[in-house]
Amino acid sequence: MKKSILKPKKQAQLTDIVEFTRKENTYRGRVIMLREKTVMVQFLDPQAHIELAYENNKTVVSHDNYKIVR
Prior knowledge:
Layout: E1 17-22, E2 25-34, E3 38-43, H1 48-51, E4 58-62, E5 66-68
């Protein structure tokens, strides 16, 4: 029986731009901090955190919940 080998998802690095979803909308941000299971992202759109009612322009995103844009 053959085992299928899955490639692990490439994780974002500092300064990468990632795309992720919050409250059914898609946002982009720059990675500013790396953790084992998450990244901290600073929104590129200066109004995004206001739309989401966040206190600041940063959010934490799981490695499973973003796509690297560049």
